[in-house]
Automatic annotation (TrEMBL):
PANTHER family: METALLOPROTEASE MEP1 (AFU_ORTHOLOGUE AFUA_1G07730)-RELATED (PTHR47466:SF1), PTHR47466. The keyword Hydrolase applies. This is Peptidase M43 pregnancy-associated plasma-A domain-containing protein. Belongs to the peptidase M43B family. Pfam families: Peptidase_M43. Residues 207-320 form the Peptidase M43 pregnancy-associated plasma-A domain. Keywords: Disulfide bond, Hydrolase, Metal-binding, Metalloprotease, Protease, Signal, Zinc.
Length: 328
């Protein structure tokens, strides 16, 4: 999934949408039907909310092809409800033969950071800047920014690669496949974090765990180098883009997935939300189901200063994906 910064979808984002759909198809997902609400997907499915007018409550595809409001959205090749349901079915199927979840148990994720910079020094992050980004992720996943869950995930920086290439820096999305095939390290359990120059309108994006088997060379998280702690992206420079995208890498959907419609984002303790948050709209409540919109959740589109936490349900769902697809 992609975290972007403008009120439109760029051509590279559309290209990634094709890659995403292709990877899902290669993985053998049937993108039709509803989620298996009765199966044990780790985190039990939330109960259906009150009946609402679907057309009035949320558009047919709440995670639309572009983020359409705000000055610095996260922007995505978004999942349709059918695509999200297909990913959830694959999780259910993978967990059938697995043992009970291990929420709270420490899960150390080997992490390799790839810095792609230009010959004039743009994008050339220092070791200290990379280390602070990893520290920010560890603090977020441990519940260190506010009320929320310690997910149990910790990221262990194993290596930093540095590539100086003007063409790669100026047109990362055009060269993405070749770049990843050359630089990627490790297996399904290794987080490859690419710190690059993304085009106008995009802050970051990620693959899902279910995609690894079909396209291991594309697996990883991509973030704009200006989103690091202290970076140049106003309102998005606390390092939370990497946290948000790594949530996707561990299987989470956006909090506004499916809008006000059941099953939302497939997590019990995140309130339904009609659409992504912009800025930090305190007190916003866009759905008739209980709870105000989760604007402080790392899986929303709020500004970085507004984000504080993952929930216990999200921690469970990430743990389930880790067991099913990454801790192999």
């Amino acid at each position: 999934m992609i975290r972007g910064e403008k009120a439109r979808r760029s051509a590279p984002a559309a290209m990634w949408g094709g890659l995403l759909f292709g990877a899902l198809a290669l993985a053998g997902l049937i993108l039709t039907g509803a989620a298996r609400a009765g199966e044990p997907a780790g985190t039990p499915p939330r109960a259906p909310g009150p009946e609402v007018n679907a057309d009035a409550a949320c558009p047919p595809r709440t995670e639309s092809a572009a983020r359409t409001t705000g000055t610095e959205p996260r922007g995505h090749a978004h999942l349709t409800p059918e695509e999200a349901a297909a990913l959830d079915r694959q999780l259910n199927d993978a967990l059938i033969t697995q043992r009970a979840p291990t929420v709270g148990h420490r899960k150390t994720v080997p992490t390799v950071v790839h810095v792609v910079s230009a010959g004039d020094g743009r994008g050339a992050l220092t070791d200290d800047q990379v280390a602070r980004q990893i520290q920010t992720m560890n603090k977020g996943f441990s519940g260190g920014y506010g009320p929320g869950a310690d997910t149990g995930f910790r990221f262990d920086l194993r290596d930093v690669t540095r590539t100086v290439d003007d063409s790669w820096f100026e047109a990362f999305t055009q060269h993405e496949s070749a770049i990843k095939q050359k630089l990627r390290r490790g297996g399904a359990d290794t987080l490859n974090l690419y710190m690059v120059n993304l085009p106008e309108g995009m802050l970051g994006r990620s693959t899902f765990p279910q995609q690894y088997k079909a396209s291991p060379q594309l697996d990883g998280v991509v973030v704009d180098y200006r989103t690091i702690p202290g970076g140049e992206r106003k309102n998005f420079n606390l390092g939370f883009t990497a946290t948000h995208e790594t949530g996707h890498w561990l299987g989470l959907f956006h909090t506004f997935q499916n809008g006000c419609r059941y099953p939302g984002d497939y997590v019990r303790d995140t309130p339904y939300e009609r659409e992504q948050a912009v800025g930090c709209p305190h007190g916003r409540d866009t759905c008739p189901q209980p709870g105000r919109d989760p604007i402080h959740n790392f899986m929303n589109y709020s500004n970085d200063p507004c984000m504080t936490h993952f929930t216990h349900g999200q921690a469970q769902r990430m743990t389930d994906h880790w067991r099913a697809f990454r801790a192999l």
